[in-house]
Amino acid sequence: MLRVAEQYAGTDTGRQRRANEDSLLARSPLFVVADGMGGAQAGEVASRIAVESFQPGLRDASEPELALAELAQAANARIHELSHSNAEQAGMGTTLTAVYVGEEEIAIAHVGDSRAYCMRDGELLRLTDDHSLVDELMRQGRLTPEEAVEHPQRSVITRALGPEGTVEVDTRSFRARAGDVYLLCSDGLTTMISEEQIAAVLRARTRLHDAGEALIAAANEAGGRDNVTVLLLRLEEVVAGKPSGLPEHVTATGMAAVVPPQSRVPSQGPVRPPRRPRPGGEPPIAAAHGSRRRRLRRAGALAVTLAIVGILGAGAYLALQSVYFVGTNGRGLVTLFRGVPYRLPGDLELYSSDYVSGVSASTLSPQRRHTLLDHSLRSEGDGASLIRSLELDQLE
Question: What is d(CA 129, CA 42) in angstroms, rounded to the nearest whole number?
C-alpha cells in the first residue's frame, strides 16, 4: 500500500504579474492545481472555486477517476453560472490538474495546460496533455516543439473550466511505485524552464521543499512572466494494518492491546496443598514458579504501558489532524496550516500546509497581520472562512 511520505506546496506571483490567479489544494491524498484566466477580478475567483470544489474530498474513492471528473464538472458548472451572472467575471475560466493517491495507483483529472509529471528512476515522465493551440498543432505534426516555444499564440488554451456549460475532462490512472515523486504545476513553470531543467532540479535535491523552492526561483530567474505554482509529493510503501511506530500487539488505532502469547498464564492443573518450606529455603520448583510469576507480571505491565502509549499517540495524531492555524509560508503568502505551530527537535514539524492563498502578508495592515497571524488554533471551517474573506477583500 502506498501513501504520501513528503509533500511541498508553493505558489508565487512572478515578476511580471500584479496578482496571483493560481490556486492550489494539498490535502493528502488529494492534490489540485488551478490556473485562472480572465484577469485579477475573475481568474482568481475561477481558480479558487475549482479548488473549493475539491476540498470535501472524493465521494467514492473506489472509482477515483469518475469521482474526480464529477468534482471537475461541478466546478465547471459553478464557474460558468457565476460568469453569466456577474459582468465583472464574464468569460472567466481556469485550468485544472488534480491527482488522487490510491493504494497502488494515482488517478488524474485534467483540463487545460497545467501539468502533472512523475519523476521515476531519475527520468521525468509527463502524465498529461496540454489542451492548448500549440499542442494541438504539434500533435497534428504542423508545428515542431522548437516552433511552439516562440509561437505567438502559445498561451491560447482550447479547453478550460467555465467558458462552456459542459466540459470534457481527461482522466487516467497511473501505476505508482514507492519512491515516485509527482509534480503538479501551472504553466508559469513550464513556459519558463524546460523539462530537462525541471528534471535536473529534482535530481539534485532530495528534500521536496528545497526542490519546490528551486523550481519557483528558476522560473522567476528566467523572467517570471506568469504566476507559478508547484506541488510535489513523494510516495512510500507501508504494510497494511501495521502503521509504523506502533508495536505489533497494539491495534492500528492504539485503543486495545493483546497480551503476547509468551505472557499468558499456563494451566496449573489440580490445586495441590502448599509444601512446607525446607530449612535451606524455597525448593527449586517453587523458586522457578516465583520467577515465572514475576516475568508474567512484568510482561503484563509492559503490555498495559504499550497500550497506554498507543492510546496517547492515536489521540495526539487525531488532535493534530483536527486543528488548524493561519500563518505564512516561506514566501510570505497567507497559508492555512493543519496541526499545531510547533517544531520538535530534529526539525520535525507538527503541521503541514493545507491551503496557500494568493495574498501576501506584506499587503496587510500591521493590525490585520497581528490578529490574523497570531497562530491561534482554529477549526477547519473557521480557518477557511478567514482566508476566503481575506481573498475577497483583496479583490475589492
Answer: 25
What are the boundaries of each domain within the chain? 2-238
Which three cell numbers, joined as nine digits, stand for 92? 472567466
Residue 366: count of CB within 10 angstroms of its CB: 7
Query: What is the C-alpha separation between 33 and 22, in angstroms, rounded?
Result: 7
Question: Which grid coordinates belong to 64?
Answer: 477515483
Distant-in-sequence, close-in-space partners of 136: CB < 8 Å, separation ≥ 6: 158
Which residues neighbour 117 within 8 Å (Cβ) at sequence distance 6 or greater?
124, 125, 126, 127, 182, 183, 184, 185, 195, 198
Can you tell me which residue has the cell 507559478?
A: 228
Reported as a single tens digit per residue, the pLDDT across 131-145 is 988 777 777 777 777
Q: Which of 353, 355, 354, 362 is nearest to 394 (CA)?
A: 362
Angle between helices 43-54 and 380-395 (to 10 degrees): 170
Per-residue pLDDT reduced to its tens digit, 72-116: 999 999 999 999 888 878 889 999 999 999 999 999 999 999 999
- Regarding the domain delimited by 2-238, which CATH topology (the fold level of the hierarchy) does it fall under? Phosphatase 2c; domain 1 (3.60.40)
Residues 293 and 291: their CA atoms lie apart, in Å, by: 5
C-beta neighbour count of 68 within 10 angstroms:
24
Residue 50 in grid coordinates: 475549482
Report yes or no: 131 and 156 within 8 Å, Cβ to Cβ.
no
